[in-house]
Structure formats: structure tokens, C-alpha cells
Amino acid sequence: MALVKGHGVTAVRLLLVGLTILTGLLAGPQPVRAFSLFSGDSAREWLTEKIEGAVESPDMHLKLGAIDGSIPTDFTIATVTLADSQGVWLTIDRLHVVMSPSALFMRSAKIDALEAASVSVTRAPVTTQPAAPSDPNASLLPSLPVDIDLKKLVVERLDLAPALLGEQAVLRIAGSVLLEHGGGALNANLSVSRIDDKPGQADLVAAFDPGKNTLNLSVNASEPAGGVMARALSMPGLPPVQLALKGDGTLDDWTGKLTATAGEAAAPTGTLNADATIKKGTEGHVLTLAAGGNVAPLIAGLAGDTVTPLIGPRPTLNATVLRAPSGAITLRPLALTVAAANATVNGDIGADYNSLNLRWTVQAGPDSALHPLAPLSWREGVVEGSAEGALSALNVAVNATLRDLAADDPALSRLTGPETTLAARARIDTGSGGIGLETLALNAAAARAEAKGTIGGWGQTADLTLSASADDLAPLSGLAGWPLAGAVALSGPVKRIADGTLTADLTGTIDRLSTGTPADAVLGDKATLALAARMEPDGAMRLTDLTVDGRNGKLTGNAALADNKVDARTILTVAKLEPLGTALGTPMEGAATLEATARGPLDGIEAQATLNARDLVVQGRRLGATEVKATAAGLPATPNGTVSARTNMDKTPLSLDGRYALREQTLRLDGLTIANGSNRITGEAQVALDTLLATGRLEGKLPNLNGLSELAGMPLGGGASFTLALDSKGGKQAANLTADASNLRVDGEGGPLLTARKLTAKADIADALGAPSGKARVEMTDGNAAGNELRSVTASVDGSLAKAGFQANANGAGAQPVALDLAGGLAMDGGVTRIRLDRLQARYAGEDLRMTAPATILLADRRYEVKELRLSSGNARLAADLGLNGERLSGELTIDRLPLALAKLASPTLALDGVANARASLGGTLRSPRADATIRVSGLKAQQTTQAGLPGIDATADIQWRDRRLTLASRVAMPKNAGTLTANAVLPLVMDPDSYAVSVPPNGALEAAVNGTVDLSLANDLLAASGDRARGSLRLDVRAGGTVDKPSLGGSVVLTNGRYENRASGAVITNIEARLVGDGDVFTVQSFRGRTRNGGVLTASGVIRPGAAADQQLDIRLQADNARLLEIDLVTAEIGANLTLTGGFTNARLAGPVDIRRAEIQVPDRMPANVVDLKVTEVGKGRRARGTTQVSTAGGTRRVPVPEEAPPAASPFVLALDMTVNAPNQIFVRGRGLNAELGGNLRVGGTAAAPEVTGRFTILKGNLDLLAKNFEFKRGIFDFDGTQPIDPRLDLLAEATANGITADVVVSGTARQPKIELTSPQGLPQDEVLAGVLFGKSVGDLSAAEAVQLAQSAASLAGIGGGGGGILDKVRRGLGVDRLDFTQGENGKGGAVQAGRYVSDRVYVGVEQGIGANQSRAKVEVDITKNLKGTASVGANSETKFGVIYEKDY
């Protein structure tokens, strides 16, 4: 057992001091005389004074009571007290001393008995003085001039107060001590036992014989639970404690063992085992120490909650220490292992203790107990160090490394990188405190900082050079909160002289700075930084020569704070505002200068700031010279000054002026004027800041609101005026507002947001800051809001917050006018607000809504209620009674016959149909809410299914919320008996009791399953418009587990007997079999296979990761082998492909090669005569009858017109393309006389919505039968250059020779706008080339039959290349007629050529010559009206025809 923290030892030492003084007197040259000194009272008082004075100090006061008996042989001191600055803390009653003075002649203080009746310790002493430095060479035992032989030591009762141990403890101490003078032999026996109601015993035996060089130690202590030792060590739970120390042998071969346990012996909670040996070797004495055990429970109370975990359950200490005969010490090594780290120390300590050669290492790994204490995460850390040389020139080096610092923080990890290191090298004089700092460098991935120089007097003086740099600021973006780029470097000297003056002169550079802020525009790509700072011993601080000089701006300044006065000035110059405007997102031009000053005592600073802009242009508006000025005086106590601004807006001066003054608690604003042309706002006000009561008046006359459009940020129109009057009579704030506007117009990006022929507003408020009351009314006439025409709108409120009534009415106009009729009341009582809705009727988008009974809304602190809310719309009904009272939730919600078509009221894009019914109840508490709901939906259809005439889906869902988990059981029945799906799920759902927000915890457990089978033929009705068809059976058995943020997928999706026909491409894929299997966090495409009609194969494999990052959700490989994916009349193609689909569900990438192995392209026999874009205007659009469909509305089921097809919404899915199309040959184009083989390579980029095709196709070989001649292709190139839409450039040349004339057909331009020319190397016109190749004649020498054949050939050419106005036009002009047409024969008849002229605007006369006998005919056409025409013709066979033709364009 032990006294608390050495306080009992202090008392014993004081007793020994007193006895030592007494012994010194007796051991003097005349001891007999000394005996006689104590015979009188004055002598006793003198002795008392000597002893008390010997120990007197500011924190130690010794008082001795009456001394009875014979001094010095046998006497008793009545009381002994020890006190500190707060009073007595130790009292000894009846201290009895029995001595043998004669032994002093033998230099021995023989004390036969030292007994105390009681010793009382009430608290721990208080120390106010700094602790005296300890002497490491001092002896553990006191060095006395005589031997101490204490035969008997007894303290009958030692009372330890609860303040020391937490409870009262009473002990008895007995023993004896023999201590030779000069630190010689020692023989001690001590026994301490508890004598109160709790047992406990401690025994100490110590014997040291210097003659034999032996040391024997024995300590045994044992206490039950709640004992003194457990309390002294503050052990948690105050367990039983046992302690045993045993050591025997000479100091050349000594062995010791220490064992300590806490807790029951059978299962101790804390243990300490230590073994020590001392052995003499050839090099000296070697001390070996091995200690370990579960030490943490033994010292947890002293170490605290922070340190205890760092020790861990199994710390170990192993040390081998050599003490050479010279006194030098060597550590071989000292190793400590705790939960926090492993530490080792090796090296030597000189015999004079004045030189060191030490190495140490500290390692903390991934399992270190330091991790929870660090503010940042890290994986492992290592500190290595050394100290070499004399203490006057000690070379110290430290290298520390932290790996993966802040790796879990994306922002910080880019700064720290994989390793963060700190390296220091210095030479230290421990005597003077001088440090020669070779380097102190901190290195991280993104930055570096270093200091070097000298330090004197442990920091009294310094001469350092500091440098810091970051070569790339991008890793610091996360810390800044916005993207950074560029580099920064700063360096310069920092000095501290003996008088305490600190100076710094720093310079630096900023390169290519990018912060996303206006600073980038000012600094440009290069800037320099310089400053000089000084702090003087009297606290004065001066900043001089501050300069930041960038490409586009410069900041200069200086500041001083001395003698409680400030003097600062700064100037910012921006040479060009264009870059600044770009950074701000507001186009600006011009230049600007900002100058600011602050001067004067700290209690009376005067400041001024002036901004001058030159040639200022903002958003294209020329403001010219602009000045903004502000002044302030009397800062900070009584600020007063002016604010003014001058500029121009739309060449009209815009100004702002005002004065302000703050006196005590009153702020006065006067002279406030804002002027812009004819618009003017004036006013003044006075505000008492302690009560916030204000008086004043603000008036505005704004006849031209358009002039304020720029200030408002939106186009305005009309005129307005307002008056606001403030009054604080009677200590209550009153306000009156009147405002009116005429021909008001507020425009947005898409048109007018609000228009009103007249708008007025009036409000009177009394006691606005106390119990507000009053009335307000707004009226609008002939307006429009958010696209709804409004004939009139009125809204008013009258009363106070305690009780007020309100109403609002709106009457619309137009085909489906909106309407609103709302009335109710509001009352506040004791923190409870009640809103009563007496009347609510509304109409919107043709739907009526009304409240069938009054409803009440109650609002209070943690109390919210909605009572008796009953709404109806047609046949639909809604009833709600919901409440929150404190922690309790309650409520019922019922929805009957709700048409899902009403979803359009929330969003016009929600074109749904069907009917929903729902029942829900709410209960429980905020921390454990409870809810039950049933939802039934019948006939659910979307717009697409309604247009397709599909029946709707029926679905049911049962929902339960219990114990913070939501359980869902649902069933979906597909139309046409196409299948049924069931879905069951259990997921976490919690409510925040403070914000009432409902959320799904990401780490909550998840259970879900979807099962069922769907017939894919159900999609055929939806595919009907495209002509596509599908069939097959899709079986779902999908499960999900794990947590919400990390779901674990299971189950499968299986497609069997699948078939898909694509009408556009003609592709037919059959025998489709697919299987997707859930595994962990992915769906694996276990198999996918289908066949095309030619036996080609399509396969797919890969994984789908629903919960992965947005760019890692898809990893699928698509393959095609000889698959016929084009099979229509015009094109047939077999394709091979090896593609990958990667990315996410909304942004994917399709990449890989596509090989066109063979393709057949058939050119139709008949093509349009002209390749042109037809501009069609549909006459009468909107008047055609549309089909009807049956839908559910608020008024019941009825038939309505089928909705017009909505424009396609922008797809949220983006498919990026990165494919190559390889077709080296076998791309055949045949038909209409064309027979060619093509080949080439293309690269497809862009997106599926906007592909970008680059590359080239060429005609490998081919010919063209044209004009009864065989034209051979000499050149054929199709160039794709990535244009949108895809439109390859053409470069084709075909050549034929006949009758000595060579004809070249040249095609150029693009596929959408081709240009076809018929040329000849002989330079002949196109009509002559045509006549010469066909007949070897000129056009003028052709016979009638040859002219017909020429026309037929020209039509054939036009059919290929377009342009009736091409060759035919040249022939028509050559023949001198108005109309020249060729018609091909039908039903076995030959063709014919027609020619004629208009003899007037409405009469045409012509001749038609057919091929064959009696095929001539004369024709007359007369235009009767715009759409009605009469015709008459007579043939060579006398056949006569009459007719009427009606034509209608559309």
C-alpha cells in the first residue's frame, strides 16, 4: 500500500529534517551543554522556532505544538501541522520520540521509538512555486552526517480524507529503519495495514550491504476491491490489487521479478510482469529488463481515456543496458511496443553524460491506435532520428514519413500524395540554446516548404530563410472548393533580433494562375508578389512595399499600426476590364482604378474609397465615365459619411446620393436620391437601433419603367409610383404603403411573365414590430400571369396576427379560363397559429376542384395539424386528417377515384390515364414512425399506350412502415393476359426528428425481389407505328440484398423463344435466347444469342453494374458473325462486328470494328425527275377529324380525341460512337444500267443522335448503261468529312465514245445536292453532245422520230441526275417552244413527245407526237379559274376528247 502521490513521504521527510536538526545540536562540540539548552521553556521555544524555520517556504508552513517530557531522550510533541497557501492539510497528534543521545558519540542517531497516535491528511497540498530542477546525479537516499537507527516506527492511525482517494481510508504503519551515513548500508522493514472496515496489507523489506555488494528486496501488497492502491491509481471499477516484488543477489549477479495484478486472481483484468537481471561482464555491468502484460487497466485512471488505448492490451518493454567501468552507458537496444507504435533506441551516452551517439526509430502501422486520434487518415508512419556529438555541438537529424495521408479525402489526398515527409538537420548547443538549422523541410505531393538559418538563445534571436512553393495548384482544388491551376513560389529572410524585433522581406511569383475568380483576369498568366513586414518590441506593426503586379492589374499598398493609430493606403489598377468581365460572366470594357485609405487613431478612423471607371461598357451598354465614392469618419464608434455614384444608362444619367450618420443607437439616413431620367426615388429615414423603430418617408415616381429594365434584370414596361411612410409614435412601428402601376409588363425569356392594365396595392400596418395588425389589398385588372389570361384578381387581408381574415379571387379569360375563390381566417394564440379555410374553389386546365367542408391548419412549436380537409374534383375525392403533436404522429389519408390524367396539373408532360384509389394511416413517433398504406391503380396508361389503343395496367401495392423499415408488396397485371409481375421489398426508412425529413440510410439493409413472366408480344401494339414486331417470353427472378448504397444482386432474367423483326432494316432475328444473372453488385450477361435469316449469329456478353460509378455501369461485348442486318428491296448486307459497350446508363460508348462482308444495293428502275427538297404546306391542318379514345376524367369516363403526338423529348441517354467500318470490296450497286463494286473504310464518331462519319468509299470497278451507251467509270469517290447531317461529297466520272464524240458524265456536289453535268472533251454543248452520241447529227438536223428518241434519252438522263431544266430545257429552247415534255409509254404503248406554246395567259395550244401510226394529236387547254381547267383534243384518227380538270394544292 502507498500514500497518495508522495504526500506521506513528504511528511516523513519533514520529520527526518527535524530530527536531523536535533541530532546536529547533540552532535556538536559540546553535547552536554546542548542537553542543558532544552531545560527551560525559552529553550524549547527556540528549538521549535529553529525546526519550523528550517522548512518554511511560500507553500510550506510547519507548526509544532507543546513539547512534553525530557528532551532529547524521551519527549512528546502534542501536535504537528503542515499548511500551504490554502491552509492546514496534514496534522500529527502526540508524536512520541525516544532517543539514545550517547550513540551520537559513535556518529549514530539512535531512535528507539518514533510513534504517532494519529496522522490526518485532509487533501493534497497546493503548490504555487515552480518546481526546482531535479539533480539526475542526486542519491535516492538522504545523505546525513550520522547513521539513522530507527528501532521502532509506529503510526497507530493514518486518516486519509475522501478528497484524496474518493472515500475515507484508515491505515496503521509499523516498521524500523537502519541507514548508514553517507548513503551506506540500508536495512528497512515496513508494514502498512488498513484498520477500517476494508482489509488490506503491504509489507516492505529492503537490505543493502555495500561491503558484500548485495541487495535484497521484498514487497508484498494485497487489497480487496475498493482498496487504497486501486483508488490511488484511479483504476476503473476499483478492482482487487496484488503486488509482489522480489530481488536477490549481488550487484554482479542480481535477479529481480515484479508481478502486479488487478481483479480476481482466477481471471485478472490487468497484469504487469517484469524481470530484471544485473550481470557483470567483460565490458561492464549489463542490465537486462523484460516487462509486459495487460498494463492498461492498471494505469487507465492515471493515463486517461486518450492515452490508455495507445498502450493496448499487450505492451512490452525490452532493454539491454551496458554500464562500462568508466561510467559510459550503451543501449543495446531499448525497445518498446505498444498499440500506438513500435520504438527502438540504440546508442551510447558518454561517461561524463556530456556526449551522445543515439539512433531511434518509431513506427506506426495500419493497425496503430493513433489512427482514431488523428484528424486525418493515414496508412503508416515512420520517424527516424539521430543525435551525435557533445551537448555543446549536438548534431540532430530527424526524418519523418507519413504514407497515404488523407487518402480517403479526395481533396486532401491530391495535396499530400502517397508520402508526406518532414526532414530536419541541425546543430544544437544545449547550454546556450544556439541552433544551426541546416534544413527544416516539409514535402508533399503538391507543395514544399523549407526553413534554414540560425537560432540563438532557444528562440531569442533568429536569422532564417523561408521558402514555399507549389508547382501545380490543381491538387489544391478540392481544398479551395473550386478548380485551381498554376504555380506559386514565395521566399525571403525572416529575422528576430535580441530586442524582439521581427522582420520579414518576402518575394514571390504566381504563374498561370487559374482560380475561376476575377483575380485571374487581373493577374493574367504571370504576376509577382513582394512585401516587407516588421513587428517591433512595442507591438507596432508595419507593412510596406506590398505589391502584386499582374499582366492586367496591379495592387500596391502599405499599412502601419503604431501608438494606437492606423495609416493604410492601397490602390488597385485594372488596365482592361474585358478579361474581368469574362470572368464575371458579364461582358465589360474599359479600365478602372480603386483607391482606398484609412487613417487616424483606432477610436476615430477616417476612411475613403473611390472607384473610377473609364470608357465603361457593361453588357453592351455604354456607361462611359463612372465614379463610385464612399466616405466614413468617426470609425468605429460614431461612423458618418456619404455615398455617391455617377454613371449613364442608355445615355441617360443614373445617380445615387445619400448621407448617413450613427450616433449612439440612432442611424440617420437623409438626402437619399436615386435618379434615372424621369424616374426618381427620394427619401429619408431615422432608425433607433436598440428598438429598430424607424420614421421616415420614401417616394417613387417612375413614369418610365422601361428605363429601369437594366436595373431590374428583365424587360419592364408601363409606369408606376409608390409612397412608403414610416412612423413610430407611441413607441410602435407603423407603416403605410400605396402603389399603383398602369400598363405594367414584365417579360421573361419566353415572353411576358406578367401583364396588367392596372395594378394597385395598399397596406396599412400598425405595431409592425410588436403585435402587427392592419389591412392590405391588391387588385389587378386585365392581365396575364404565367400564360393564363386574367380578367381580374383581388387579394386582401384584414386584422391582426391574433385574428385576421383573408380572401383571394381570380377570374380568368379565354377558352379554358382559370378561376379561384378562396376565403378563410387566421388566428394566433399562445404560440399557436390556426388557419381556417372556409371556402376553396378553383378551376385549372378544364378541371374543377373544390373543398366540400371547412378545413383547419394548425401550426405551433412541434405541433402541426391538418383537420377535416375534404377535396373533390368531379367523381374524385380526397380526405386528409394529419397531425404531429410533440413526438406523436397521427393521421388518415383517403383518395377515391382519382383520375391519373390530373397529373398534367403538376406537369403538362405527365400524360397519364387511369384511376387510383389509396388508403393510408400514420402513427407512432418521430423517432419510430408507423404507417400503413394500400394503393390500387386500374387502367394505367401513358400517352404512347393511349395512342396505340392498348388497355391499361392494373397494379396493387401494400405498404407498411415499422421499426424504421418499409415493407412493400405489389402486383402488376399486364394487359391482354401478357403476364404478371410481383415485387416485394424491405428497405430502411427513417425520419429526422428535428427536420422531419424522411430519408433512406445508405448503410441500411436491403431486401427486394421481382418475379414474373412477360410476353414480349405485348410491345407489338407500341411498335405498330414503325411496323416492328417482337415476341418471346421474358422471365424475371431478380433479388437484391446487402445495403442501399452497396446492394448485392441475385437471381436471373431469362428470355426464351425470342424473335424481333425490324421493318426499316428488314432484319429478322430469331431463336433469341438470353440469360442475365445477378452476382454481388453486377448483372452478368451469362448468355445472349440470336440468328438472322441467312444463318448469321449475334452474341453478347459482359456485365451490368447498376450501383457503380456513372462511367463504369456497362461493360458489354457485342459480336456479329455474318449477320444479315439489312434485308430490304434496296439493300441487303451481311455484317461482322466486334463491339464493346461501356460507360453508364445515361452516357455510354460503343466502340470497335464493323466489317461489311458483302452488300447488294439495288437502284430502282424509276427515280424522281428531280433530286430536290419538297416544301409542303398542309392546307387545313387541324380541321381533320382525329380518332377518339376512352379516358377517365374527374367527371367520369368519356371519349376524347386521341392526343396529338407530342414532340419527342430530348433523350437523356447519350451514346458516344467510336467505330470503324471496313468494307474492302464486295459492295455491289446494280440497277438502272448501273453495275459497280465499291470499297472503303469509314470511322464513325460523335453520338448516335449526331454521328460524325469520316473516311472514303471508292468505286473499284463498274459501268453505267446510259443513253443506250455503256459508260465506264473512270473515277468514283465518296468522301465523308464528318458533316451533320451525313452528306458525302461526290466526285464521279463516267465516259463513253460514239460517232467520234466522247461524252463524260461528271457528278459533283454532295449526295443531298448532287450536280450532274454532261460534257465532252470537244467542248460541245450538252444538247449537241447528246445528239452527236446518239445519232451523229446536230440538234437542228434531227428528224421527228429522232427528236422523240432524243427527248426520251434526255428524260432518262434527267431521271438519273435530276433537272428537267437541264438538257431538256436546252432542247426546248433550241426548238423554240414554251413546253417540251416526254412521256414514257404505258400498257405496252410507246412514248410520246409534246410541244406547244401559250397564245395568251390562259390559253395553251400544243401538238403531241407518239411513236407509231396515227399517234398525232392537237390539244387546247383553257384556264377557267385558279383550280378549274377545260381541255379539248383531236387526233389523226378523228378521235375527239373534251374534259374538265379540278386541281387542289395541299
Automatic annotation (TrEMBL):
Its main location: membrane. The keyword Repeat does not apply. Keywords: Membrane, Transmembrane, Transmembrane helix. One of its GO terms (cellular component) is plasma membrane. It is found in: Membrane. Residues 1087-1450 form the Translocation and assembly module TamB C-terminal domain. The keyword Membrane applies. Residues 1183-1205 are annotated as: Disordered. It is a single-pass membrane protein. GO terms for biological process: protein secretion. It comes from the Bacteria. This is Translocation/assembly module TamB domain-containing protein.
